[in-house]
Amino acid sequence: MARTLPPVQAIRAEIDALFTEGRDLVEVIEDVARLGARLIIQTTVEAEVDAFLGRARYQRAATAGGEEQTVRPGHRNGHCPTTVKTTTGAVTIARPKLRGTTEAFASRLFGAGVTRTNALETLVIASFVRGLSVRDVEGALADALGPEAALSKSTVSTICQAIVAEYDAWSRRELTAIELDYLFLDASHFKMHDGQRPEPVLAAWGITTEGKPVFIGLSAAAAESTDAWHDFLTDLAARGLRAPLLVISDGAPGLIAAAEQVFPRSLRQRCVIHKCRNVMSKVSAGDQAEVKAAFWNIFDTSSLDKDEKEIEPGQDLVAWVQQRIDAFADTWGGCYPAAVKSLLTDRASLTTYLRLPAEHHKRIRHSNFIERTFGETRRRVKVIGRFPGETSCVSLVWAVLDRAARGWRGFTMTSKGLRTLQDLRRALLSPPTPLRPAATTASDSTPETAAA
Predict the structure, then answer these.
(1) Correct CATH for 175-269+390-413 of 3.30.420, 2.130.10, 1.20.1250, 3.40.50
(2) Residues 6+ apart with CB under 8 A from 434
(3) What's this model's pTM, rounded to 2 decimal places?
C-alpha cells in the first residue's frame, strides 16, 4: 500500500502539479497563493507540535532529548481537517491529533479553536508581491517560519518571469477587433515608490456591442493629469480601439479633458455615485439622509407618473430628469447652496445615460463597475505599506483585475435597445457624409463674387 504523504509534502505536491496542467497562468497564480497560505499554516502548526512533544515527526523520544529541549510523553495520532477563514476565503488544513499526552495541545498561533488568521495571510500576500517584483519569495516566508515554509525556487521563478511576460504581451495586444458601446475609466492609487505619495494606476474596461464585458487597458502614471490620461487613451486608440458610444468616468478634470480630446464624438457620462459623494460632503450630518434620498429620487425613472410612462430613452427623458434637478435645487438651494452648485455644475453630464437603452441605465450611470475589485487589490497590499516598485504594482493589479474580469456580468441586449444603440452610433460616430454643395453657375454669380 502506498504511504500517505505528510500534509506539508502533500501541499507541496499540489503546488508542483499546478504547473504541469497547462492551465491559464492567472488561475495558477491564484491557486498558488491559496495553497501557499495552506502551506504556511500547515508548516507552522506542525512545527508547534514538534516543539510541544520535544521531537520531530518520526523521531523517537530516546534520541530527541537535549539540554534545552523537554521531551513530553505522547505521540501523533493522525490528523483531522480544520477550516481557517482568511480574507481570501476559507482554507482547510490537517490539524495534528495527539494521544498519550499529559496536557492538552493548543496552538499558540490560532488558539484552541482555529477560526481566523491574518498574520500568516499577511506573509503570503507580502511574499506574492515581492515575487512579482522578481525578488525572492522564499525570503519572506523562511525569515518568519523557517526554510521549510518557503515555496521552491523554481515555483517562484516561474511566477516572477511568466506574470511580467504575460502582462507585457497583454498591454501590447491589438484592439482592432474590439468595438465598444460603453467605456469605463477609473484610477486607483497605490504606494509604489519609496518616500513618495500614492500614485495612480489608470484602468479602462468596457462593454462590447455584443454586451460582453472586456478588460481593455492598465497603466501606471505619476498623476491623474490630462497628459497622463491622454497618453493612456492615445495608446489604446493607436492599438486599434475605436471610439465608444459612451465614456463613463468620475469628475477628474484631467480624465475628462483627455477623453474629450481622444474621443471627441463619444458621449460622456459623469458618475452619479461620485457626484452624490461630492454633494453629501457639503451637507450637514443631520440632513444627509434626507438630502441623499432626494438626490437619488432625481434619477429614479421608475417613479414616472402613469401618464408619463410612454417617455422613451432620449432627449425627452433627459429633459424630465433635468426638471427634477431644478426641483432639487429649489428645495435645498437655500440651506445648502454649495451642495446645489456642485450638482448644477455637472447637470448635463449626469443625465447623458438617459439617451441609452433603459435596461442599461442603472449600470452605465456610474463608474463603480470595477471599484470593488480595486478595493480588493488595495486590501491585499494594505498590510505591506507600499509596493517594492512600479513593475510589481502594475503586475499585481493586472493579475487581480484580469482574474476578476472573467466573472463580470455582461449587459442584456434587447432588439429595442440594439436599435437605440445603432441609431446613436450612426448619428454620433458614423454620420453620413454631407453632400458636396453644387457648383456656382455664372448666372448665379453676383458682381462681387465675379470680381473676386
Answers:
(1) 3.30.420
(2) none
(3) 0.68
